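Hi F.,

I've been meaning to write this up properly since the lab meeting, where we talked about keeping a consistent format for the predictions we share between groups. The idea is simple: the sequence comes first, exactly as it goes in, then the structure tokens exactly as they come out, then a line or two of notes. No screenshots and no reformatting. I'm using this chain as the first example so we have something concrete to point to.
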Amino acid sequence: MIQTTDHLVIRPRILYFGTPVVLLSTENEDGTSNLAPMSSAWALGQVVVLGLGSAGQTARNLRQRPDLVINLPSAEQWPAVERLAPLTGRDPVPDHKRGAFHYEPAKFAAAGLCPEPAELVRPQRVAECPLQLEARAVRITPDLHGDFLIVEAHVLRVHADPAIVVPGTDHVSPSAWHPLIYSFRHYFGLGPELGHSFRSETPAAGERRSTAAAPPA
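Output, unedited:
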């Protein structure tokens, strides 16, 4: 019989139990791009669901101009993400952010990142991010209390650094891609591969799958 310890009942203020960090590019009223870090993002097929504060510049932009770019930084790019963390593109600064955040319109420069044009949407991509998803918000709904927005974004085009793509395929190589993970307000990368799903279409780390037909038994 396996003995287990009793669990504690806790009340954490946040539930960021380990999700990828994304940098969202959206278009400001003057045509410039706002850049904001966030960690509430997950994908369903070609739709990425985003959770973001309802009072920020990103929310304001998406309500009026639904195009966006979902830029995914690699683990070693966490300092650039953190440089963006205390900044807001909203002027005046929203009441709930005053004291901890300050207004900064030039987000790319402040983070030390380079903008590059998108192909299907107006906001700019982050050149340094290995994965960049051009997308359009197709549905924006408030959460139960009105503090957050739930954005369903349809991905229109994916740009990937060749270094993380399985050669000759449209697959991102899990062993080459090292996303930045946000866990209870700390930054992490991924550890070594433990295994892969039976549905995986890419080889495990150190494994090569032959595409040739198997010889007859």
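Notes:
The first strand starts at residue 17 and ends at 20.
The longest helix spans residues 57-64.

If this format works for you, I'll send the rest the same way.

G.
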